[in-house]
Write a structure and sequence with these properties.
The complex is a heterodimer of chains A (443) and B (315). Chain A is mostly helical. In chain A, 54% of the residues lie in helices and 6% in strands. Classes of the chains: A mainly alpha (443), B mainly alpha (315). Chain B: It comes from Neohortaea acidophila.
């Protein structure tokens, strides 16, 4: 979507709250207020309330279609206490009217009603729209707006009960399971890429720029404070920074291939598979070296990082392979514990330490493998949630979501219960009440 | 807008570590309200937890106090909507294990953990899919899972003292009970819930039987009557077997009816199914919606402009 139309959708002059995670929407939400009623007629109040709420609840649905969906009977439940049901049969509610007992009962009732919460029926006005597939996808946090959720459905990225569903307006039935393509979900909820060819995100880039600016500001202040100390600091900084800057890609790649060949030479007890992998690895490094001229700088860095990771991965498998042998050796040494001298003990300690290091490395790599750097993905990698997502992140109770497989089950229709409405809406009860009144047949 | 985004709105750019991060948790200047609140509120809430666990939890949250009810409103104007906790991953796994491996029935798990039966079933169903994906080698969205669950309030898994996730015995407000009825009756009459239900509608069941777990009410009743544990269990088993027998009988009757009225003729590719219909269902005007077949004077509208058919169910 072009930028201009996005700003039109999230207007700033006459703000409308939308079903989206946009920062403009968040700003509008932060300054949302209930319009003053004193200067308006009842009709004006209702009109305004209707236009506000419809701006949020599917403005793309035509008014005539929505009015056909509207139902004045709003769903609600009352949570029951099974202990209370077991202890009484309900006759105590009708007990003693006129017999003098009602006074006490009234007092109990009054005490109760203070505690008792009202059921916010009016907040349920738009409950038929919560059944829509695109809304449910957005509520399950699989898309950053209902419009995007709609796009996912239309483009064929969504399945309902295992079958592809192409209608965003499909009304889910209780028990329906919907699955969204994980790549689409990661794209929708992840940070945006700064560059098409790179893997870095715009928010990381912004952070980096901010940090650099702050450092520069601090440096400028320092130079103002004292020129003498500045020189020394600069020297120190240069010393700290130089090795990294100097390390050109060619040298790094050569170092990598050298490391691989050294491992091949030194460790005799490598398994055939590892040897194959290492040879394959050094071959890819050589290939990259030959192609180095044609590639951009950023990309080179990424490939080096990737290769580094690959080598570490191969290495992490090495101790696992030789583990049984090691254990046998450890057993043997235990049998001959009496003869063991100080030196061998030290070696054992070293062995365990290296093994533990390897395990730690393995765990870190596991995490990296689950969330790898991959420039081919449409989102920034490693995956991170996008900006301003946390302010909108909640999952209503009528959905049960499994984020690992990007699937959710629509358990039941949303209901109101004392003190709580399950249709998420940003508006005050008063506004919702006026809206409900607008859609009643006689207004 | 940009001034707000750089000022008070900056707090929402990134999630708070191990906590939700909603608008209502901050004041107008963008300060976290609960930062000033005392830590002692936290102590009371976790009275049943060990010292280490409390420490670990606060450490996960970067030393911030845990969010309260007022911090969990994503929409500041709407006090009637709260971000309610979701099941934590440990709890999901535990439920799945109890149901699939230990063979405990859904209702028992639901009552033990205070989770809706439908939710328990959904958790198991989703977990099955997850396992299938793992076996296929399809990559899971682990990073997404971790990030989202860190942003949401969650119900933890505590096997010894499981906190209730949600109310399980919800009584739906039936349309028949929405009316106000004036029913004169004698003062001496014991007017129970069952009578009230009958007054609303002859076929309406009392609240005790319309909730999801009527067996909990029954057990509590036996407890009040003074039955010991063994007797209660025996009675419960008898009740269970009775209900199973009733279900089997119903199924048997349905099959009998099917055999009587449906005729299936296996074809080369499809089975043809014939069943009895009533021609009376078309009603007087011939347009009854439950009637079968194409009828004169009732043209299909599906070729008209703007008529498109969205499926109403997927099986």
């Amino acid at each position: 979507m072009p930028r201009k139309s996005l700003l039109k959708f999230h207007t700033l002059k006459k703000p409308k709250i939308r079903q989206s995670w946009s920062k403009i929407n968040l700003y509008n939400l932060s300054r949302l207020s209930t319009p003053a009623a004193a200067t308006k007629t009842f009709f004006q109040q209702k009109w305004l309330a209707k236009s506000m709420t419809r701006g949020y609840h599917h403005p793309q649905i035509k008014e005539k279609h929505w009015t056909r969906m509207f139902d004045r009977r709003l769903p609600a439940v009352v949570p029951m206490d099974y202990q209370y049901l077991a202890q009484t049969d309900g006759s105590e509610m009708a007990l003693g009217r006129g017999g003098g007992l009602d006074k006490e009962a009234d007092q109990v009732h009054a005490r109760d009603s203070r505690r008792r919460l009202k059921t916010p029926y009016m907040h349920m006005t738009f409950h038929p729209l919560e059944r829509r597939l695109d809304t449910a996808i957005w509520r399950a946090l699989f898309a950053s707006s209902t419009r995007q959720a709609r796009q996912f459905v239309v483009h064929g990225g969504v399945k309902v009960n295992g079958k592809r569903m192409l209608h965003p307006g499909y009304r889910l039935n209780p028990g329906d399971m919907f699955q969204v393509d994980p790549d689409k979900v990661m794209y929708a909820t992840g940070a945006r890429k700064a560059k098409k060819t790179g893997a870095m995100s715009t928010q990381d880039l912004a952070d980096l720029k901010e940090q650099r600016r702050r450092e520069e500001a601090a440096k400028a202040q320092e130079t103002e404070a004292g020129a003498d100390t500045a020189e020394l600091d600069e020297d120190l900084e240069a010393m700290a920074a130089k090795p990294e800057e100097q390390e050109d890609p060619k040298a790094a790649l050569k170092l990598l291939s050298m490391r691989a060949s050294r491992i091949l030479d030194s460790k005799r007890d490598l398994s055939g598979k590892r040897r194959q992998e290492l040879r394959e690895f050094s071959r890819t490094v050589r290939k990259t070296l030959s192609k180095l001229r044609g590639i951009e700088e950023e990309q080179v860095e990424e490939t080096i990082d990737g290769l580094e990771l690959g080598l570490a991965e191969i290495l992490s498998k090495v101790p696992q392979d030789s583990l049984p042998k090691d254990e046998a050796a450890a057993l043997d040494s235990a049998r001959a514990a009496a003869e063991q001298d100080q030196a061998t003990e030290e070696q054992a300690v070293d062995d365990t330490r290296t093994r533990r290091d390897a395990e730690l490395l393995h765990a870190a790599l596991e995490r990296a493998r689950e969330n790898p750097i991959d420039a081919s993905k449409p989102y920034a990698t490693p995956w991170k949630p996008r900006e301003f997502m946390s302010a909108f992140a909640f999952i209503p109770r009528y959905l049960e979501v499994n984020q690992n497989i990007c699937s959710a089950v629509y358990l039941r229709h949303p209901v109101a219960r004392p003190g709580l409405a399950e249709v998420p809406t940003p508006f005050h009860g008063e506004t919702m009440g006026l809206t409900f009144n607008w859609y009643l047949k006689r207004r | 807008m940009f001034a707000w985004l750089k000022g008070p709105g900056k707090a929402f750019r990134k999630p708070l570590p191990g906590s939700s991060n909603y608008l209502s948790a901050y004041d107008r200047q963008g300060n976290l309200i609960r930062k000033g609140r005392e830590e002692r509120d936290d102590r009371g809430r976790f009275a049943d937890l060990g010292e280490d666990e409390v420490l670990k939890e606060t450490e996960d949250r970067d030393g911030l106090p845990k969010e309260g009810a007022r911090d969990l409103k994503p929409y500041p104007l709407n006090a009637q909507f709260k971000s309610q906790p979701v099941l934590s991953e440990d709890l999901r796994r535990a439920i799945n294990e109890l149901v699939t491996e230990n063979g405990i029935d859904l209702k028992a798990v639901s009552a033990a953990f205070g989770i809706d039966v439908r939710r328990v079933a959904a958790v198991v169903r989703l977990m099955e899919v997850e396992k299938a994906w793992e076996q296929e080698g399809k990559p899971l969205a682990k990073a997404y899972n971790d990030a989202v669950l860190a942003m949401l309030p969650t119900t933890p898994y505590r096997p010894s003292n499981p906190p209730a996730h949600e109310p399980i015995n919800d009584l739906p407000v039936h349309p028949w009970t929405r009316q106000q009825i004036f029913l004169p009756t004698s003062e001496s009459r014991v007017f129970t819930r069952a009578d009230a239900a009958k007054t609303f509608h002859p076929s309406l069941l009392p609240a005790d039987e319309r909730i999801a777990h009527p067996e909990l009410v029954q057990i509590a009743k036996w407890e009040h009557e003074g039955f010991d544990r063994e007797t209660r269990q025996r009675l419960m088993r008898e009740k269970d077997s009775e209900s199973v027998a009733r279900k089997e009988m119903k199924e048997y009757k349905r099959k009998q009816w099917e055999r009587r009225t449906q005729v299936t003729v296996p074809g080369r590719r499809w089975d043809f199914k014939f069943q009895d219909i009533s021609a009376e269902k078309v009603n007087k005007d011939g347009r009854g919606h439950e009637a079968v077949g194409i009828r004169y004077g009732m043209p299909h509208e599906d070729r008209k402009k703007g008529q498109f058919k969205i499926p109403t169910k997927v099986e």
